[in-house]
């Protein structure tokens, strides 16, 4: 029996620099499993175009600084319009080290990861595939360094309160789930977590799924932010 070929991952490029978009398109379209289907020069154009193309884009590469509407605001608009029947495309924020506060805000708004604009092409391609699978982009070495730098800009934690939903959710985690979340926050992959805890990778995936469900997190990145905000993990640990 002939297998039906898997359709390519549909990618949207949002950047105010046309040459940047052209370079990204050339790299992405060179891959048989990826395809650029939409481009926009600012956040407002992106929101309008992606709203019209609901369900037709899988992953968005979103620059942070753009005229008219920045990537942060655009990401919030896109994720706010999602539903269980029509999920929003997954967003990868493109950034540089001096824009950490924007990256954190974008992740809180619903981005599934972040990538340095000068990352090697193969890292960008891997990030698109990773995010499309439902994971978050926090594992590659450059984003691990960015994550370590990012957490230093988190605001001082407010005094805990039993009504704080994030703290209450973390309190519901089992001891093993807390261990897994701490390792996730340190940028460890499922394979590495399994090696650290001497369990199968499939078991780690099960724990990760339960952690995301209990925290109400969209993906690993949001779960990691919650871990730092609730001080389950502290910068530099």
TrEMBL record:
The keyword Phosphoprotein belongs to this UniProt entry's keyword annotation: yes
Gene3D superfamilies the record matches: 3.40.50.2300
Keyword Transcription regulation appears in the UniProt entry: yes
Segments forming domain HTH luxR-type: 166-231
Pfam families given in the database record: GerE (PF00196), Response_reg (PF00072)
Keyword set, alphabetical order: DNA-binding, Phosphoprotein, Transcription, Transcription regulation
GO MF assignments: DNA binding
Name of the protein: DNA-binding response regulator
GO annotation, biological process: phosphorelay signal transduction system; regulation of DNA-templated transcription
Domain of life according to the entry: Bacteria
Every Response regulatory domain range: 10-132
Cited InterPro entries: CheY-like_superfamily, NreC/VraR/RcsB-like_REC, Sig_transdc_resp-reg_C-effctor, Sig_transdc_resp-reg_receiver, Tscrpt_reg_LuxR_C, WalR-like
Residues annotated with 4-aspartylphosphate modification: 63
């Amino acid at each position: 029996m002939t297998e039906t070929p898997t359709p390519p991952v549909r990618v949207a490029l949002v950047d105010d620099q046309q040459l940047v978009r052209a370079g990204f398109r050339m790299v992405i379209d060179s891959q048989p499993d990826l395809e650029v289907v939409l481009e926009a020069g600012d956040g407002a154009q992106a929101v309008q175009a992606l709203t019209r193309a609901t369900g037709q884009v899988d992953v968005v590469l979103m620059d942070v600084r753009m005229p008219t509407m920045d990537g942060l605001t655009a990401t919030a608009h896109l994720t706010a319009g999602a539903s269980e029947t029509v999920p929003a495309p997954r967003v990868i924020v493109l950034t540089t080290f001096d824009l950490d506060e924007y990256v954190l805000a974008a992740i809180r708004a619903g981005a599934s990861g972040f990538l340095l604009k000068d990352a090697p092409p193969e890292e960008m391609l891997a990030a698109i595939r990773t995010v499309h699978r439902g994971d978050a982009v926090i594992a590659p070495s450059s984003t691990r360094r960015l994550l370590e730098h990012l957490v230093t800009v988190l605001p001082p934690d407010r005094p805990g309160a039993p009504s704080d939903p994030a703290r209450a959710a973390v309190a519901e985690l089992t001891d093993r789930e807390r261990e897994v979340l701490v390792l996730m926050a340190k940028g460890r992959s499922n394979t590495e977590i399994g090696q650290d805890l001497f369990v199968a990778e499939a078991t780690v995936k099960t724990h990760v799924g339960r952690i995301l469900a209990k925290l109400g997190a969209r993906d690993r990145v949001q779960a990691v932010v919650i871990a730092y905000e609730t001080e389950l993990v502290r910068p530099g640990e």
